[in-house]
């Protein structure tokens, strides 16, 4: 097998492992512990971006490539090794929805969570303007997502896609870093229940982070924060 996934424990590289399990693709998994929170130097040396995920592969002409960024890794694996499976084609009636949600996750939602996390780490009070604006943007994002998932089984509609693979980290493992609840969002909770019933997701998470409690419910893993 030529594909190698370099997985930093409890990180967004779980997305790539899950993708390969959904596609039944063979891969070599190399895992790295945080020291104590950030990636070790060995991991950072793999790619100039120094962030997870990172994959390596051998092309048809024998050249080794190293690739970072979740979206890039997912697109590469799907199109290079699985004929574009889990990407909806432009001819699909749900293609506009797929395209929006596929880009929304890392373009809007994950950055929103990241900014809120940094504000909390900085100790800014709830009265701080940036904190209030961030909280409102986060609530608006969750409400929009909840409305979608009350109406549809998956982000792109009836069909599971890479948009779902991209999203779930932000709703689950990310809450080890930035604790937030989902109690009022029944659509999202129902969706996470469907995700948790997928055998490929369970296999992927057991390989990625054995023994880690999956955050598929309303409550964040209180007392287990990594931040």
From TrEMBL:
<keyword id="KW-0808">Transferase</keyword>
<dbReference type="Pfam" id="PF13409">
    <property type="entry name" value="GST_N_2"/>
</dbReference>
<dbReference type="InterPro" id="IPR004045">
    <property type="entry name" value="Glutathione_S-Trfase_N"/>
</dbReference>
<dbReference type="InterPro" id="IPR004046">
    <property type="entry name" value="GST_C"/>
</dbReference>
<dbReference type="InterPro" id="IPR036249">
    <property type="entry name" value="Thioredoxin-like_sf"/>
</dbReference>
<dbReference type="GO" id="GO:0016740">
    <property type="term" value="F:transferase activity"/>
</dbReference>
<comment type="similarity">
    <text>Belongs to the GST superfamily.</text>
</comment>
<dbReference type="InterPro" id="IPR010987">
    <property type="entry name" value="Glutathione-S-Trfase_C-like"/>
</dbReference>
<feature type="domain" description="GST C-terminal">
    <location>
        <begin position="91"/>
        <end position="212"/>
    </location>
</feature>
<protein>
    <submittedName>
        <fullName>Putative glutathione S-transferase</fullName>
    </submittedName>
</protein>
<dbReference type="InterPro" id="IPR040079">
    <property type="entry name" value="Glutathione_S-Trfase"/>
</dbReference>
<dbReference type="InterPro" id="IPR036282">
    <property type="entry name" value="Glutathione-S-Trfase_C_sf"/>
</dbReference>
<dbReference type="Pfam" id="PF00043">
    <property type="entry name" value="GST_C"/>
</dbReference>
<feature type="domain" description="GST N-terminal">
    <location>
        <begin position="1"/>
        <end position="85"/>
    </location>
</feature>
